Amino acid sequence: MVGVGETGTPLLKQLLDAPFVELVGVADLDLRLPGILLAKERGVPVTDNFIEIAEQGSRVDIIIDVTGSRKVREDLRRYMQFSGNTHTVIVHERVALLMLSLGAGRWVETRHDELSY
After folding, report:
1. Phi (first) and psi of residue 104, to 5 degrees
2. pLDDT tens digit at each of 117 positions of the chain
3. Domain 8-104 belongs to what topology?
4. Which of 28, 49, 79, 85 is 20 to 30 Å from 69 at the Cα level?
5. Contact call for residues 45 and 26 (beta carbons, < 8 A)
6. pTM score
7. Contact in structure between 87 and 2 (CB atoms under 8 Å)
8. DSSP letter assigned to residue 65
9. φ/ψ bin of 36: left (φ > 0), alpha (ψ from -120 to 50), beta (otherwise)
């Protein structure tokens, strides 16, 4: 999972509570965020370099990008193409918001204005 700020942390909590989900890493530039601390408490590796998660190759089925950053999306896609990884799927923030909203039973707002693909 990439991005555990206001939008990502609630989704992180849901993923951590799902017994059928294995989180292999969480990335955010700010390693002091509550989501990072929560991941550490639960034994999930954390990093400030999201490419480290992508470098795990086919060990990672899904990378959920909730950064709201076009550059992060582009860098992730570029890395996946460069590495030849055709296994891992990058989940866009819009899909992550839908997942969060379904879990909450209502539409969850985000502070990210630009969610273009």
Report:
1. -85, -15
2. 999 998 899 999 999 999 999 999 999 999 999 999 999 999 999 999 999 999 999 999 999 999 989 999 999 999 999 999 999 999 998 899 999 899 889 998 877 655 555
3. Cobalt-precorrin-4 Transmethylase; domain 1 (3.40.1010)
4. 85
5. yes
6. 0.89
7. no
8. B
9. alpha
